[in-house]
Specification:
It contains 15 helices and 16 strands. It is of the alpha/beta class. It has an eight-stranded mixed β-sheet. The protein has a six-stranded mixed β-sheet with strand order 4-3-2-7-8-9, with helices on both faces. Strands 5-6 form a two-stranded antiparallel ribbon. Helix 11 links the parallel strand 10 and strand 11. The longest helix has 15 residues. The protein is globular, with a radius of gyration of 22 Å. The two termini are about 25 Å apart. The relative contact order is 0.16.
Length: about 425
């Protein structure tokens, strides 16, 4: 790469400053107490009988207070005299294997020891119905054979499509609980038809499974639980769209409409299904979603440890580092893309020797001649946006000055001796 490095070595980078961003900070002070009370208030105990076996869904996202939410549900089921168990419910994630999915839960803090019940992981499914287009609807075999299912998931804007239902309880049934085989069927008609297909598959699952209740969380811009909802089976279709709208109003953002260079320190499945929240970075791998800032050049530096090498989302970037490339588990990443029917999310960007060259590559190609005019932003990941870094021009062009605050003077972007970013260690 000596010729490429020689070209980029002379590219100067703008200085940056630390910036704090503020968002709606609505939150629950006692997540466990609030959820327990809502389970009581909704009379969920009346649906759980002595000796029943109750499956609880365990997704692959880094949900805020995930362990506390799971422990509370497990404890509640036990107090009702039933036996809870967790079913990894993450479609094709974790490499599409039972061991990989259980390991993903472990990385998120969900284990038998931490939450108090067994985790039964299998990729076996049973067919519970067929859609109007004659696509089979599959559900995890252990969950389908249980005496009841409790759905647990966060509700938020999806990264790949728009609809009445996006990430939430319906998606947990149609894709998460469906395992790799069912997720493949739900995605079969591509993201352009996902909103319609998701609802039909979700309705069939609702009608054919003993859903005890759904537990939905929404989060504020600081990754804290803003509210919790316990829904009876017959409330899910009606109430989830309302919860989604509340979630949208709490979403964080980067307070810029136009970004010349955006650098993301880490991406991963624990952060977003597409590695990064596409709504934050303004890059999308499907035609079924849009929004966010106009980002001219985008660079990714690393894959989170909890992602297990799944580099889904890397196709959104213009450049990645060799550090990033070396961590890619291509089988896990490609299974994810093949299941979702969208290979754009895993196409390999230009791979450069280190983080500094990623910065320099993005700056060289961003189309801004004067270094002082480059609107450059650095974020750790798309879940942590309260403290970020901006160039002077980026800060001066923020769209809501009341929501951003300068926390330091300008300084050179720090790199270690190997040319890797030295901001998040």
């Amino acid at each position: 790469m000596s010729q490429i490095n020689e070209i980029l070595d002379n590219i100067k980078l703008p200085q940056i400053m630390k910036v704090s961003q503020t968002f709606d900070n609505t939150k629950l002070d006692d997540v466990e107490g609030d959820l327990n009370q809502k389970l009581i208030d909704k009379n969920i105990k009346d649906k759980i009988k002595q000796g029943m076996k109750i499956a609880i869904t365990g997704g692959s996202r880094g949900i805020s207070s995930y362990k506390e939410l799971m422990k509370t549900i497990v404890s509640f089921v036990k107090k009702c005299g039933a036996t809870p168990f967790i079913v990894p419910s993450m479609g094709s994630h974790g490499g599409g294997t039972s061991e990989g999915q259980e390991n993903m839960l472990k990385k998120l803090g969900i284990t038998k020891e931490s939450v108090g019940c067994e985790i039964i992981s299998s990729m076996d499914v049973v067919e519970v119905g067929r859609t109007s287009k004659d696509l089979p609807v599959y559900i995890d075999k252990n969950a389908a054979n249980a005496d009841g299912i409790i759905l647990l998931n966060r509700v938020k804007l999806h990264t790949s499509f728009r609809g009445k239902y996006e990430s939430g309880l319906i998606k947990m049934m149609a894709i998460g609980l469906a395992k790799r085989k069912g997720a493949d069927m739900t995605h079969f008609l591509r993201y352009e038809n996902m909103a319609e297909n998701l609802v039909e598959v979700g309705k069939i699952a609702l009608n054919n499974l003993n859903i005890i209740c759904g537990v939905a969380s929404i989060e504020n811009g600081y990754n804290e639980v803003a509210d919790l909802f316990v829904l009876h089976k017959d409330e899910i279709l009606q109430e989830e769209p309302k919860i989604l709208e509340k979630s949208k109003r709490l979403m964080p953002r980067i307070y810029l409409d136009d970004i010349d260079v955006l650098i993301v320190n880490e991406i991963g499945k624990n952060i977003s299904g597409t590695g990064v929240d596409t709504n934050i970075v303004g890059r999308f791998h499907t035609n079924a979603a849009s929004g966010g800032p106009n980002t001219v050049k985008l660079g990714f530096l690393d894959i989170s440890e909890k992602s297990g090498g799944n580099g889904n989302g890397m196709g959104l970037a213009d450049f990645v580092s060799k550090k990033f490339f070396r961590k890619i588990d291509f089988e896990s990443t490609y299974i994810n893309a093949i299941t979702s029917t969208e290979p754009n999310s895993v196409k390999l960007p230009l791979v450069l020797d280190n983080d500094k060259y990623v910065f320099q590559g993005c700056v060289k190609l961003c189309g801004v001649k004067n270094i002082q005019d480059i609107k450059l932003v650095i974020i750790n990941n798309t879940k942590e946006l309260d403290e970020i870094y901006m160039s002077k021009s980026a800060f001066e062009n923020t769209v809501d000055k009341s929501k951003v605050k300068k926390e330091s003077e300008l300084f050179d972007i720090p790199f270690d001796d190997e040319g890797n970013l030295d901001l998040y260690r």
